Structures are given as structure tokens and as C-alpha cells.
Amino acid sequence: MLILMTCIVIVGILGGGYYVSVSAVTGIVLTGVLFYRMYVKKRITAAWDLNMAAFAVLVFGYLLSCLWAVDSGMALMGVVKFLPLLLFYVLVSGLTDEREKMIASLPMLGCLMTAFSFVMMQFEVFEQWVSVAGRLSGFFQYPNTYALFMLICLILVMWRFDYKKIDWLDIVYGVAAVFGIIMSGSRTVFVLTAVAVIWVFAAKSSGKKVIISVFAAGFTNISFGASTFLGRILYVQDALPLILKHPFGLGYYGYYFIQQSVQTGVYTVVNAHNELIQILLDAGVIPAVFMGAAVLRSVFTKRTQSRNRIVLSIMILHSLFDYDFQFLAMGFVLILFLDMRNIKTQKVPVLTGTVVGLTGAAAAALSIMCGVSDVCYTSGNYKAAEKVYSGNTMAQLALLTKADKAEEMKAIAEKVIVDNQSVSLPYSALAQAAFADGDVEQFTEYKLKAIELAPYQYEEYENYLEVLVYCNDLYHQMGDKDGVRFCVEKAEEIPKMLEQVKENTSALGWKIVDRPQVTLSHENLEIIEDMRRRMDE
Questions:
Q1: By percentage, how much of the chain surpasses pLDDT 90?
Q2: What is the full DSSP assignment across 402-447?
Q3: Cβ pair 104, 48 in contact under 8 A
Q4: Crossing angle of helices 393-402/72-92, nearest 10°?
Q5: Are 18 and 102 in contact (CB under 8 A)?
Q6: Is the pLDDT of residue 151 over 50?
Q7: Buried b (16+ CB within 10 A) or exposed e, 330-344
Q8: 8 Å CB contact between 97 and 322
Q9: Most CB within 10 Å of its CB: which of 41, 60, 254, 444?
């Protein structure tokens, strides 16, 4: 229990376990604990149930998606990221009494995190680590998920609160939870707090319903930010056709890479802000069905106590509007509240132990490679990140943005395109390299491909026109009429391309803060007209 609880604490401190590097270390530690139980104790106690099947299918789904992923290298990092969930479930499901102790300790952890992060927030040097735009984010570095964790802590405190025997420490924990929720500024959690408070009091004592309903009304008066809420709907709207087209998933980070070519509004997000949609996008329909069935079974079964049902329901509701389970710590918390069945102690046959051992060793090696690469990437050492693990496309793209020589840009871009043909940046870089080599036709080909993959990147259209104008002037000086005609015709296509983008933009795309720019400036339109006039003279 101590090692598992330590994992929750350390993961929570390290950004909530959002980064692959944290998952990598956690996975290695949990694998070591599992090996100890298997090879020293010669047996393993776990819940061999739907939950375990769901986590196993989830991890296998991420692994299998590597075969057809948008980016197979990044897809493999997804396996490392979510493997600890399966390992943690196997280890914790056999600890019935200890699991309840772990749950009981969460309010204390939430209180300590809130206290430390609030103090750190007062100092500029630490502020960026515990707050976002003035909103307290705890160690998660994301206010909304931090707020959800504090709401879970509040539910636990309220549930065990006894008016006849007041525990003043619980009062402190409860105040810290409410303070954290308020300081997070999370509108969604404000509303869910009202729901949770009413539910807890209704479940514990019908006499408090009226009083607490009045208290909760203050929370429900807080409205969702229109643009934020509509943005989340837009993400889902654009994601659904992808799910239908790719029912077995796009792989980890696949949605991020492909979204610009399919989006109907201006946004850039790594996650779809809906965990069910995210699993469908990443790993496919089958893992999503298993995970949904496992969690919902725990919610609706009579075996689950009311406290756990409330916590699970709140987590599910919030996850439909955010990406909570991209944080490993929240996945661990979810597991603690699941209904676990068919708990058995199994002896470990030699063959099974050997297979598990070899698999674990391979997983550990992969975790080390991906984890070190991720640490290098997040610390800004992109060359080292790419060298340790060449499948880290994010590191390669970062290197591409820093490249200043045409040859270097071309080499990096071509390397990215081998594994990922869905990103605009490499094609834009190849266009720039082609222009440096004086190959106008190839520049045009690459630039149009870059625009096709990211049609809302208005700067690409302006850069495209700028180069065409430059080349047009050179062709005039050389007396190359075919070259002039080529440049003019390509330039005249730009307004039509933007008009098509305008037609493809959904109604929601016009209602969020970042609205698309789909018309050239008056100055640029005049430049195109001037190019036509000069050609006709």
C-alpha cells in the first residue's frame, strides 16, 4: 500500500502525471512491484473482472493503433503513458482494506497541495508552476482538473462528517477544498459542486435538502463561458466524422496532428476535452466500449456504496467536458472508487511468469527510451529528445521551427513526412527550401499541400502570395511569359481557396473567440489585379 500511495503522491506532484516521462517512471516502479509479488511471493491477488479487462484492452488498443496510426512513433508513447493504469489496477485491486485507507487520505493530500500551491502562487518565480492566468491549478498545472480533485476531496469530507462528533481536521480539509475550488475559477466544477453537495446531503439526511439547495443555487447561477462551451462542442462535432472514418483509432497524438485538416473552426488542442471522444479517437471503439461499460457498471451496481457512486458520477460528468484522465493521478483516483469483483489469489506458473517477465522488461526498456526523450523535449533539448527516441515527432517539429538553413529544414521535414503525412509544417518547410533552390513549381506544390493540411493558417496564404509576387517580378525581368502566367494564375486561386474555407466553416466556428480570416486584405487583392494587368499588357 505504501508504494502505491507514494506513486499517487509523486505523480500528483509531478504535474498530475500528464507527461509521458512521469508515466514512464511510474510504469517501471509498478512493474517492479508486480515482479516482486510474482517472483518472491509466487502469487498475485487481484480482481479478475471487467475493470481489469477494460484497462488491458485500453493499453492493447493503444499498442495496436501503432499499426495504422497517424504517427506510429507518437502512438507508441501512448502505450507508455497509459500502461501504469493497468499495472496500478492489478496491484491495488487485491488490497481491500488498504484501498479504503488510501481514499481516506485524499482530503489531506488535497489540503496540503492547496496550501503549498497557494503560497507558491504569491512568488513570481513559482507562480507559473501552480497557476494559469491567475487561477490556482495546484500541482496539476491545469485549474479544471485540480478543481475536480478538490471537489472529490470535499465529497469525501462531507460524507464522513458527523455533527455529533466533529473532527476539526476534517473542517480544515473541507475549507481547503472549497477554497481550492473557488480559486481555480472552474465554472464546470462550480456547477458540479452544487450537484455533489445536494446529492451528498440527500443521501445522508433528507432534513438538510432544503437548506443545502438554497446554498447550491448560488453556484448554479454561474453560467458557462459561451465561447469555451461552444468550443468544446465544436471539437466533438469535428471529431465525430474522424471516429466514423477511423473506428480503430488514430493513435496517441493522432487527433492533434490531423485536426487542422478536418476542423471547421480555428483552434489548436491536443485533447478533445471529452475523455470518451478522446479514447475513441486514440484507441478506437472497442477500448472505449470496454472502459465505458466498466465505469458505468460501477456507477449503477447496487454493490457500490453511495459515496463512491457520487464520486464516480461527478468524475464522469466532468470528463465529458475536459481531459481529466490524461492526468495519470486522476486515473489512479478513479480506480480507487471502482467496484472490484472476483478477487482471487492466483499462483504464478513458470511459463506465465516468464512471459510476463519478458513483456515487462520490454515495456520497461520502451518506457526508459520514451521517458528520457520526453524529459529532453519538455526541457527544450530537442536534439537530445530526437536522438534518444527518433519517433518523438514533437521534438522533430520543434527542431524544424528552429532550423535556419534550407538543407537542414529539408532533411528534418523529409524525416517527419516518412512517418507522418498529416502535419502542415514539414510541407511548409519543404516549400521554403524549394524556393531557396529556385524551384518555383515545387515550392507551389509543397505550399499548396501545407495549406490543404492547415486551411485556417492565414499566414500561409500571405506567404504564398508574397513569393508568387516576387517570382512574378523576376519572370517579367527575364521576359519569361510562361512563368508570369503561372504566377498570376496561382495568385488568382488564393481568394477562391479562402472562399472555400469560408464555406467549410461551421456555424460554431463563427461563434468562438478565434474566428477565421477568410478574405485577403484590400491591398493584397489589388496586388493580384496588378499582376493580371501587367500580364495582359
A1: 82
A2: H--SHHHHHHHHHHHHHH-SS-HHHHHHHHHHHHHTT-HHHHHHHH
A3: no
A4: 140
A5: no
A6: yes
A7: bbbbbbbbbbbbeee
A8: no
A9: 254
